[in-house]
Amino acid sequence: MKIAIIGAGIAGLAAAVRTASAGHEVDVFEANSYPGGKLSEFVQDGYRFDAGPSLFTMPQYVEDLFRAAGEDMEPHFQYQKLPVLCHYFWEDGTRLQASGKAEQLAQDMEHIWGVKAEKVLAYLADSRQKYRLSGRIFLEKSLHKAGTWLNTGVIRSMLMIPRFDLFTTMNAVNERYMDGNEKAVQLFNRYATYNGSNPYRTPGLLTIIPHFEYGIGAFYPEGGMHRITQAVYQLGQRKGARYSFNAPVEEIRVQNGHANGIRVGGEWRDYDLVISNMDAWFTYRKLLPGQPAPERSLHQEKSTSALIFYWGIRRSFPELDLHNIFFSNDYRREFEHLAVGKISEDPTVYINITSKYTPADAPEGCENWFTMVNVPYNSGQDWDALIAETRRNVLAKLSRILGTEVEPLIACESLLDPRSIESKTSSHLGALYGTSSNTRMAAFMRHPNFSHRIQHLYFCGGSVHPGGGIPLALLSGKIVAEMIASDY
Ligand SMILES: Cc1cc2nc3c(=O)[nH]c(=O)nc-3n(C[C@H](O)[C@H](O)[C@H](O)COP(=O)(O)OP(=O)(O)OC[C@H]3O[C@@H](n4cnc5c(N)ncnc54)[C@H](O)[C@@H]3O)c2cc1C
């Protein structure tokens, strides 16, 4: 089969590896001059920055790609498990270095806050159990194919639904386990932001996310996050996939209900199958003019977006690690702001510093700070004003907690906001993770990995099932490749 893949984001790259490895003739068309989409990098004044994702979880899905391609991963891609997951800071001086070992974390939480260690361990065991029972249904298979629901393992999992905490919120589950300890609850509520959701609304089932870090682990790819893109891109090249950059696809041709070609650079090219890694919203709105779109699915609430200040810092901070969080005083209020399109004056600040693990990412004695706050998706806010105000608030907060003025330490600066996230990767409204998971039905309402109306048209990437984040984007590429293998 001749397959066209629209977009070389990590999901498109994964789909290319799998379909090329299955023997198909694969062409990938990318609008940008580089692969990776959000998972890209840039260098400024001697500082290297990963532009988007900074946390690497579920490395098994990268390993799985190499396995599917019949190659050994080790010579091409290495990563290490983090002994400490995150350094947490609060305004009242509380600090916690969250160990990657659950037992150690539990003991530290008991020591600092008096939360019983066995409660923390029971919570993480529950997280693991939910993942084991629901992971295969919600993440690894299409939710929109009858075959998924007829599988005996899935039927067994369905019987366990009452244990999934689907009818309560993540915050309620965290309060239940953490005896209402505010900081412990906040620490675990933060996991809702891993897919751009709100812990006070997202179902309790999302308490599976801590298991990804404390059960499976958090990892650092040698050389930084962008190495994931490079490794998967080069693997696809070795498997024979062909890549065109600066090649935005203009239209998908549909004849007699079948996708059978794409227009690039004004020219039509014939294909048997088309896979779109472009955001589903823009695939319909820009590439499929005149075709009916699945409006209900496209109008699902978007995930949050992000504001990132990439700062070269001319000093090093021994108290900081690869991942650092400076929590807001009132987490609920922060999410209330996000829900109405605003940014709280006291936002939680995340700093990622890859030079802690890859010293060459910053000049000697300096650090590369990827400083991020969660912000609402773009609904026409006055972003320039919001950014200026948030920058002031972030700098003041960091300076207070670190006990030193941060602004004079900034050697260089770049910015990413919801507008540039949309323009750089065609992500509707700048949402980081496609649609939010703020309702029980979110997983089912997300666009499927195929079109119900147009034959031979498939979808992968963060805006479709199973959702955003590198692991799920990789899984979407797998689901699409498996569907193609079974459909043809
Ligand atoms: C700031 C930020 C922080 C994040 N943090 C994390 C994290 O720590 N961990 C994590 O797991 N995930 C994180 N994510 C989410 C993660 O980056 C995404 O879910 C994932 O990279 C999405 O991959 P994708 O392939 O779906 O899409 P994208 O990366 O958006 O790629 C889509 C590609 O399609 C191309 N394209 C679009 N339209 C066309 C067209 N018409 N023709 C040709 N090409 C086209 C785009 O140029 C782009 O390259 C973060 C995202 C951002 C932005």
Strand order of the largest sheet: 8-7-16-17-18-15-19
Largest sheet: 7 strands, mixed
Q: Compute the number of helices.
A: 17
* Number of distinct beta strands: 20
Distance between the termini: 9 Å
Rounded to the nearest angstrom, the radius of gyration is: 22 Å
Structural class: alpha/beta
Give the overall pLDDT as a whole number: 94
Specify the overall morphology.
globular
Indicate the percent of residues in helices: 25-40%
- Report the sheet-strand fraction: 15-25%
Low-confidence stretches: none
Give the topology, please.
Layout: E1 2-6, H1 10-21, E2 25-29, E3 41-44, E4 47-50, E5 56-57, H2 60-68, E6 79-81, E7 84-89, E8 95-99, H3 102-113, H4 117-140, H5 146-150, H6 152-159, H7 170-177, H8 182-189, H9 209-216, E9 218-221, H10 226-238, E10 242-244, E11 249-255, E12 258-264, E13 267-270, E14 273-276, H11 280-287, H12 295-298, E15 305-313, E16 323-326, H13 331-339, E17 349-352, E18 367-375, H14 383-402, E19 410-416, H15 418-425, H16 442-445, E20 457-459, H17 470-487
Parallel strand pairs: 1-2, 1-14, 2-10, 7-16, 14-20
Antiparallel strand pairs: 3-4, 5-9, 6-9, 7-8, 11-12, 12-13, 15-18, 15-19, 16-17, 17-18
Residues 6-12, 29-32, 37-39, 52-55, 248-249, 277-278, 306, 308, 421, 425-427, 432-433, 461-462, 468-470, 473 line the site of flavin-adenine dinucleotide.
